[in-house]
Amino acid sequence: MSRKDITSGNWAVAEAMRQINPDVVAAYPITPSTDIPMKFSEFVADGLVDTNLVTVESEHSAISACLAAAVSGARVMTASSANGVALMHEIFPIAASYRAPIVFGLVNRSLGAPINIHCDHSDSMAERDSGWIHIYCEDGQEVYDTMIMAVRIAEHKDVLLPVFVCQDGFITSHCFEPVEFMDDEEVRSFIGERDPLFPLLDIDNPVAYGSLALTDYYFEIKRQQVEAMKHVERVYREVAGEFAKKTGRDYPVVDTYKTDDADHIMVIMSSAAGAAKDTVDRLREKGHKVGCLRIRLFRPFPAKAVVDALKGAKSIAVLDRAASLGAPAPLFTEIKGALYDAGIHIPANTYVYGLGGRDFFPHNAEEAFMDLINNNMSPEERYLGLRE
Amino acid sequence: MPRPEVLDWLRKRFFPHMWCPGCGHGIIMHAILRALVDSGKKREETVIASGIGCSSRMPGYIDSCTIHTTHGRSLAFATGIKLANPELTIVDVMGDGDCTAIGGNHFIHACRRNIGITAVVMNNNIYGMTGGQASPTTPLGARATTAPYGAIDPPFDVCKLAQGAGATYVARATIAQPVLCEQYIKNGIANKGFSVVEIISSCHTQFGRKNNRRTPVDNLNYFKNNSVPLAKAQSMSPVDLEGKIVTGEFVKREAPEYTELYRSLVERVGGGK
After folding, report:
1. Which residue, of A165, A197, A387, B63, has the greatest Cβ tally within 10 A?
2. B147–A contact, CB cutoff 8 A
3. What ipTM was reported for this prediction?
């Protein structure tokens, strides 16, 4: 029997981790993700899990310990935010290349400077080419469910890649809302036991990780990672399909809201989709045919699903919670690329919003929608909620 | 209330500060400011550097040249500043997590180089800002959010670490001894090389609540009752010293300062230009 409780995004992650019962968790405190290992450490201390929790001396050590444990054959999880994620950067591409299925609770927070503890996506966007799978969640329920699905996706032998499960710092991580939890047994039967490929601890079959590959083999190994990423969407659909059958909660790679007949579509990620969908409802009451497309799977980028959702629109607005300084914003770039490849030219506006935790209100979403409705289009980057 | 002579050194527009009422860090900030004023330092020739944590908010409140950097890296930044302009007086304010965990490497190497920086390590035995996780100075058996039944990791002795790594001035006081704090910081600033002044501070919010030191007064009393001056400690047995805070000046020695060595190297190999 599933149970419902009021909990925060962070505690939902910790609860998923308790049920998953990973072999190793190594972590270092950083706002706003600290709650995750902190709550989890209570489970460890109370003997509710069998996990080796290592409270290391920096994020760099945390992800290094996780990586070594993962290639040893352990099931491994950790969490971090912002500068903690940035400090881990050196190890991220190595983890992907070692094909280490680490599941990572990433609580999005702005990268300094100025020092800021609130939400934007600059931390995870900076890691978009590190070879990890990126999934962005809208609310606590989705974060909980995604943590469980991520274990299966990461450990699938056609994939074997680490996964970031992203939620918005404070907005989702600290907001208490009802979350429906699965039974412990149900979670454990869903994820099964990890069956590692080439574990370091298989001493009868010794293997080497991290070897030197220069001009001779480096390129081929990177090509294998490209191939692994190509399998992710199929595996994701299998796992999400099975999860939906069990729980009734369905998580497609992109979340479409009233897009089928929409003339104007807003593309957005994570918690701000709530304000966007509300605005869709209010504008529809006034007779405007608008819709919202929320991108859940960002790496690998689900280009076909995006094109399918957008192809009928007359104009689109892409909202990024991160800027790519000196180039168009990251999500906008992906959307344009996907449409171009499909031979579709839809006028598109690009907006950056919510940097450093600046609130995103329905009236900000409405401003962007009204630009589309009034055919106020231009390729120049615009800003929502900014004082200028 | 701050002494009148330090008022010019405060960025009053940023008050009230963010520290909890009763936090030990205010006592330390006041001691630093008194030491700087008493040493005849000018605000425009003084740099206060910090990393991340409650203690690291201090430069925001001090009206000199200040830099608030990333977690653990303040000594790396301060090293660059000192090398660029060795005439500056640099006080690097750090917490125990900042100094001995994520920044531990920079700390021992600053000690090793004996670079002219005064590190004030505010040790409250906990990661206060992020919610009370055990740090590398959390005493054995003390409770923290990541050690709900007591810490099992042996703690660092910051002064021994600094001494072993080569710092030329190393001292320890507690916030219950504000005059001593000021004196040691002043001695640290006067020392030409790398100085470490460890000040045992209190976090009644995150540490005290879990360890029977709920109020600021509990903490001050604890420090008063458990501090032992170095001279007395030298005649005590290790068993008697268990759980005690030994205060005093542990190292006070002369050694070449790094930026001076660097300058003489430049002069030597630069061909006398």
Report:
1. A165
2. yes
3. 0.88
- By the 8 A CB rule, do A149 and A143 touch? no
Question: CA separation (Å) from B236 to A235, A275, B170, B225, B241?
Answer: 67, 67, 21, 16, 7
Task: Look up the CATH superfamily of B16-270.
Answer: Thiamin diphosphate (ThDP)-binding fold, Pyr/PP domains (3.40.50.970)
Report whether pLDDT(A1) > 70.
Answer: no
B65-68 and B89-95 strand pairing: unpaired
Q: Report pLDDT for B270.
A: 86
Residues of chain A above pLDDT 70, percent: 100
Chain B residues with CB under 8 Å of A116 CB are none
Q: Is the dihedral of CA B78, B81, B86, B90 positive or negative?
A: negative
**Tell me, what's the pLDDT at B1?**
77
Identify the pLDDT of residue A235.
98
For A285, the domain range is: 254-384
pLDDT, one tens digit per residue, over A51-95 is 999 999 999 999 999 999 999 999 999 999 999 999 999 999 999
Work out the minimum CA distance from B109 to partner chain A, whole angstroms. 17
Instruction: Count other C-beta atoms under 10 Å from residue A196's C-beta.
Output: 20
Instruction: Choose among B68, B101, B129: nearest Cβ to A58.
Output: B101
Judgement on whether residues A115 and A231 belong to the same structural domain of the protein? yes
- Chain A residues whose beta carbon lies within 8 Å of the beta carbon of residue B70: 83, 112
Residues B188-242: pLDDT tens digits?
999 999 999 999 999 999 999 999 999 999 999 999 999 999 999 999 999 999 9
Nearest CA in chain A to B152: A55
pTM of the model: 0.94
Question: Number of Cβ pairs closer than 8 Å across A and B?
Answer: 51
Rounded to whole angstroms, the Cα distance separating A385 from A363 reads 9
What pLDDT is recorded for position A104?
A: 98
d(CA B193, CA B185): 13
Answer for the pair A58, B102: CB distance below 8 angstroms, yes or no.
yes
Q: Can you give the pLDDT at residue B273?
A: 57
Pair A350, A220 in one domain: no
Q: Which stretch of DSSP H or E encloses residue B30?
A: helix B25-38
Using DSSP's 3-state secondary structure scheme, residue B133 falls into strand
Cβ contact (<8 Å) for B52 and A115? yes
We report the CATH number of the domain holding residue A286 as 3.40.50.920
At which of A247, A268, A289 does a domain end? A247
Q: How far is A178 from chain B (nearest CA, A)?
A: 24
Chain B partners within 8 Å of A28 (Cβ): 101-102
